[in-house]
Amino acid sequence: MNISKNVEKLDNSAVKLTVTVPAAEGDKAYNNLLQKYAKEVQIKGFRKGKVPRNILELKFGDGLKQETAGNLIDEAF
User: Fold this and answer.
1) Which CATH number do you get for residue 46?
2) What is the pTM of this model?
3) Per-residue pLDDT tens for 29-55?
4) Are 77 and 55 in contact (CB under 8 A)?
């Protein structure tokens, strides 16, 4: 994984963390997370594990993106 990180010291014992992830790595992590939830989630009107990708993205898109970003930052440490 080609993740670069930069820690910058600021005033009053504060720090600034900058994490740079290539777009391909971010897309791969997002798709893996989406596949994981597609197998586990149950939405009314669909059988468990048979929810289409676009429905998941409409319903949980922002949350999935935030979770992906959090997972990538955790991996950077």
Assistant:
1) 3.30.70.1050
2) 0.75
3) 999 999 999 888 888 898 888 888 899
4) no
